[in-house]
Amino acid sequence: MTGTTMTGARSRAQAGGANRWVILVVLCVSLLFVALDATVLHVAIPSVTEDLRPGSVELLWIVDAYPLVCAALLILFGTLGDRVGRRRVLLLGYGIFGAASAVAALADSAPVLIAARALLGIGGAMIMPATLSILRVVFPDRRERATAIGIWTAVAAIGAATGPVLGGFLVQHFWWGSVFLVNIPLMALILPLGRWLLPESKGSSDGPWDVLGALMAAVGILAVVFGVKRLGAGAGLLDGRTLATLCLGAALLTLFVRRQRRRAHPLVDIRMFSRPAFATSVGCIIVAMLALVGLELIAVQYLQLVLGLSPLQTGLRMLPLTFAAMAAGATGSYTLRRLGPRRMVCTGFVLVAAAVLLLVPMGQTDWPALMIVSFVTLGFGLQTTLFAAYESMLSEAPPERAGGAAAIGETSYQLGAGMGIALLGSVMNAAYAPGLASVAGVPAADSAAASHSLGEAYDVASRLGGPAGHALRTAARDSFVHGVHVTLFVSAALLLLGAVAGLRLPRIMDCSVAGQARDAEPEPAAEPEPRPARRLSVKLPAPARPSDGAAVESGRTRH
């Protein structure tokens, strides 16, 4: 049954010729919505705060509800798509995403907006793994699939990078709800288009679906991501709530892995991690996203608070990173064929490490040319790494496990983003705070408040005024630049460790028939093939001739 479903989807894709590239466009537009909504609200937070008056905890959940819920449910819906049909889950995700967008746009209170953001996360968790697993089925040839994945990863980078720009434009010309309202007409268009164009495919449907395992994975990932985000927000590792949340998540995920190993029909095939290429690819995705999100957060603060650029100027200064990522995605298939996964991942990590170290001379003086060169190298290197890692991970996974593999990849993406904010943010704070411990003329309480962030230090300095305020502002700016330099060195070290880990990947991109044998479906005509030869050998009387005749007939049958 599984083979029939997969073969049907594959024949539709192959028979359509260019039709599979139209399918790729639909999948990429789907992904674009999800990536945009992860960042489009950031610039609208001041307007949301002024309109809805949320508390500090409510504001945190307005921002985090979407990525937290999305990360927690990726494995659940990715594996559900393998069972009930990936297109079915994707179309349902479209509907939920559109309805949640309407609720969010018209929200009149913080709880309603939080609930709508959580519902958006459910829709996003349905859409993200489904797009990648359908792509895996529609493009069975590895060369074409590499090109498709390059376009897919480039769209993800474009969506995440252009979210703040689009959000800023909409908020400036309309109101904060318009950042959600724009999704509705696009979803109304893509829902019937996806139903008409996208092929249905399923994975293995043997055995019952592990509902308990899916819930364990969801709650475990939610707890880990939430704990990591608390660390990034400044909570200490020994903080009671943070430690309890991280321990709960780790315990549930450990039990989940043990449960999957024991089951005859697991929700996620843990054996995939025994393949060096698969496990290494997942680790590389985490490290690459850790560097990208952590460095972007620090770069935005540096550009606005140290160099004094406006939000629009900051967004424009970050555009070279986006364009470089697009170029890397567009040329990724060619680069992968020439270099192979191992050299491509290692080269990407080394490029990013070099770009990070190139920023170290930056101080309190703006060097636009140096920053542009660094951002171009950073964007190209990171997208090169992500492309090769995603392609290797997806090619290592069996087709019937495409949804689970895609969900693992997207979960790694989200975990890497959360860990980047937590880890590099903690390094930044550890290097920044000591410089404000004792500033001449500044009370200890004000110094403690200023040590939380550079923005708070500026607020305290403005309130103090006079020589004390000036001294605090200068000390805070110097400490922040010192923290940026320390964070850049730590990032470079992590990236070089990622390059070393990439040495476990295959040296070449195997596109041979033998290399893709696991993707091939059993042919229905394979079983009756020997029968004509046996009947022929019975009818022939001469002892020497049946052998020759059988060989000839068998050869004709095979060809």
UniProtKB/TrEMBL annotation:
Pfam families: MFS_1. Residues 517-559 are annotated as: Disordered. It comes from Streptomyces hundungensis. Residues 23-510 form the Major facilitator superfamily (MFS) profile domain. It is found in: Cell membrane. Keywords: Antibiotic resistance, Cell membrane, Membrane, Transmembrane, Transmembrane helix, Transport. This is Methyl viologen resistance protein SmvA. InterPro entries: MFS, MFS_dom, MFS_trans_sf. CDD domains: MFS_MMR_MDR_like (cd17321). The chain crosses the membrane at residues 21-45, 57-77, 89-107, 113-135, 147-169, 175-197, 209-228, 240-257, 278-303, 315-336, 343-363, 369-390, 411-432, 480-503. Its main location: membrane. GO terms for molecular function: transmembrane transporter activity. It is a multi-pass membrane protein. One of its GO terms (cellular component) is plasma membrane.
